[in-house]
Amino acid sequence: MDIKQVKTSEIKAYAKNAKKHPEEQVKAIANSIKEFGFRQPLVLDKNMEIIVGHGRLAAAKLLGMTVVPVVMADDLTEEQVKAFRLADNKTNESAWDFELRDAELAELAELDIDMAQFGFDALPEFDEEALDGIFEDAPEKEKEPKKIQCPHCGEWFEV
After folding, report:
1. How far out from the chain centre does Cα 134 lie?
2. CATH class for the domain made up of 3-91
């Protein structure tokens, strides 16, 4: 992967970007960039238009950055660019395991890392004794395999 540094003034936002980036999210992304560095480059097409990274560009501009890391996807067709843009946003959607997330946040709170700056709401105080052994003794759940039927041959497969 060839990562280049490109001036923010040369980058064009995609006018029909379906993903919303509210102000609070952009601030959280900016705080993440300040804290951890710019770890995910934007992805641009051959016209210097954003495929992936609208929120990161907005955060970079909020921070006053004039140059950002990018990866050029100039080998993709227009159709592939549109599909990649939507696919990237869709495949980043997922649910939280709130129990695990809250345990991680509790550990970080003890280290005085303010996760609210990255968009996490303040959590209630945790009883440290209640967290002891939360992972060690948890029985593993046996998952039932899912079965799907092939629409062509009618055969059933476990996934």
Report:
1. 27
2. alpha beta
